Amino acid sequence: AGCVAGAQEMDVYLDLLRAQGFVDVTVLEERPIAVPDDLLRSAPRADVEAFHAGGGSIVSITVTGKRTITD
User: Fold this and answer.
1) Which of 2, 25, 59, 70 sits in a 20 to 30 Å window from 45, CA-based?
2) Residue 26 forms beta bridges with which residues?
3) Are the C-beta atoms of residues 33 and 60 closer than 8 Å to each other?
4) pLDDT at residue 20 in the model
5) Whole-number Cα distances in Å, 63 to 1, 31, 35, 38, 39
């Protein structure tokens, strides 16, 4: 898949939350982020191909979870 600076695949992000002790991790909302055509035109061809091969989408998610704080 292509890369947006700082972005991670959703499953990887949710697994990181769980690894930090969060439970009942739930995605409440997914909002698609439009990628302007002119941005894709300025990207290297290999990146554009990887973006489309990965489904060609970027989403912003709202997540909830619980974590017990211990001293």
Assistant:
1) 59
2) 64
3) yes
4) 94
5) 22, 12, 22, 31, 28
Angle at 4 between CA 39 and CA 66, to 5 degrees: 140
Cβ-based neighbour number of residue 51 at 10 Å: 19
For strands 58-66 and 23-33, give the pairing: antiparallel
For 20, the 3-state DSSP assignment is coil
Instruction: Tokens for 10, please give them.
Output: 């959703």
pLDDT for residue 12:
92
More confident residue, 46 or 52: 46
**For position 53, what pLDDT does the model report?**
79
Instruction: Please give the Cα distance from 49 to 26 (Å, whole number).
Output: 31
From 1-10, 14-23, 60-69, the region with the lowest mean pLDDT: 1-10
